[in-house]
Design brief:
The protein is of the alpha+beta class. The chain has three domains: 180 residues, Transferase(Phosphotransferase) domain 1 (Transferase(Phosphotransferase), domain 1, Orthogonal Bundle), CATH 1.10.510; 336 residues, no CATH class; 179 residues. It is built from 25 helices and 16 strands. α4 crosses α7 and α16 runs parallel beside α20.
Length: 737
Amino acid sequence: MEYVEGESLSAILQRFRGMPFRRGLEWAQQICSALAEAHAQGIVHRDLKPQNILIDRQGNVKVTDFGLARSVETDATQPGTILGTPAYMAPEQVEGKWVDVRSDIYSLGLVLYEMFTGQRAFQADTPIALARKQVHEVPPAPRQLEPDLPERIDRAIQRCLEKDPKKRFQSVGDLEAALTAQPKAVPAAIEVEEVALPFHLIRWQRSDWLLLIAAVIGLVLFFPFFDRTSLAPHNKIGFDRSALLRITQEYAQRLGAPLGEQGEIGTLEDWDQYEHVARTAGAPAAAKGAYWVWYVDWFPPNLKPTRVYVDKTGSLVAFSRDFPPDDAAQKIPLEEAKAIAEDALRRFFQRDPAGLELESAGSDVWLGRGSATLEHAATTFVWADPVGFHGLRRRYVVRLVGRDIALLDAQPDLPPGYIRRRWGSPPNWAYATGALLFLLLMALGFAQRGRVELRARWRRLTVAGVSLLFGFAAWFGFRSTLATFLATLILSAAMALLGAVVAFFSSIGVEVCLRKLAPEKFGTFLHLFDRRIASEPCGLALLRGTCLGLALLGVDAVVTSVATTHLGMWLDASHLKNQAWFTISRWPHFEIFLLAIGKTLWVGLALIPVVAFLTTRWVRRLWLACLLAAALAAASSIHGTFGALQPNHLKVPVLFLLYLILIGVFFRYDLLTLLWAIFTFGFWWQNYRMLVMLEQAGPLSVVLAFILWGLIVVAAAAVAFQSPLRSGYHRLATTFE
């Protein structure tokens, strides 16, 4: 017999829960053609069902399994003979009556019903119940289950399912003519075709085992190189959010500062200190320094807040407070003030003044925290360490208002004459480039809103999801006063509306670009927003994206290590920004997921549409468009923590190579695989740093984030291999029976 490399229509319907209209109609025509040939030879199939219809890798249909087929002239079809599958048997077949070509047409109607609606016309617990329904019940009209189904298809299927054979189509030729009749005229600009997925996107291939091996190698490389390059291992903190509040409150009480309502909790990172040490002594030496401090503001009644800063061990780094306007502190002699200041130096910074250099001492004015109108006579003392950390000398400042301590500060200072740079952050034009790209996509989506059919569910979910994210982000500034509550509520609504509008039209622009470039790469992404989310292609895309993301994690770690050790480069501000903030956040795992999603959209939905736009507008050769898109993205310094290095002119080649890899992932697989690979990379890149920094404080929330990510991957694997798992289960159940 001929070997057909492909799969049955039944397997496809189980995976997709229905067929795209164009593809289903094409296959229906081929089934009709096959049956017409059999009927022309006087053969009735008598067991037509999705399991007996094969689809090869080129999309051609093969009607198989004529084991029950008999000539219409033989006695095998005489009354009293009941053969077939109950779920797809014609009523006369169930009753043992005469069977002819119209019985095959009834069975084909049931197959078409399942193809275009995603579910069987009749469902029951037993074969006998199914057979009774075939004789006595009428299924719901297909358009009740799939409102977008053309009316002619609905009428054709219902006519196939008539109980009386005389009311059905009398030949499959008549049925094919009804299916292919031209629909009512629609605007030529509307494009509703959904392209069938390539075979390698719907089945696990042998080459995919290489992805799994690459993921393991990526993790094996990531962990040792992470310890050599990251700032996190040397900045493990010993407190969580509640401990931070308790520690800072105790310091404020010891310093005699008035306490009130707990206010802002935040972090400060000094990028310039890291950049100075990295340029002076190299990135490996700079990685051993500490560049974060955590602070809490306490709001006394009618005063500016009291702010307390601590380092990773919970030791005091800085302190400042305010004084009432009518507080006329008595000026004390300089020697007495110096004694108080030296005592504070010993008590709070554990430093002996005799081992420090006294740089200045004298009268001063204390304006309080942010106050430009209230002045208090003060006495200020400044000591400095004689030895610094690669040029960073720690200065100790003690400022007194009377006998009360108004200011303590023990933070490192940059060398005199150092010019502060902002090379650690992406240049302003990088943000401008990204904003311009999304504006172009939004404009394109608005202009093309009538030329592409986006599923209504996808549009609603996109708008609702983006609105939720933007609204939630705006609520981080919530305070308890009514005025702030109302202001935040209005801001949340405005941000949600703006985000929804941008996402709505940008999504149309992205789809327009991708459908022109590679429409088959867009299918699994759309499956996320309809009932095909549990299809095998979606599971495979997520599984492959996981492997690719972990492999990229190892590649990035190796590249970062080589660049910082041998090429004179250093880490950029992505390694400092947000990292400390996550340690004191109420929902760090949620924020890390949100940040990873943002990075995914920032890179994935910026890079590939550029390729599509260049290909369809200016550049005819695809390889040249890919090179130009990677070069533009790298030159703009847009990155999702890929190649997070400095200086920028050396980072561009690294980003260029990484973006070429991402473009290759898209063309080898699809958009969903690419986006999940970027998400996996960004999530691990950020969350593992959190896990290391919180190791001593109990990183429960971070572990929960990893567990959630792992559950998604396990679910994706189960979905990807649901067919063999189901078959194995049935074999096992049969064995035990």
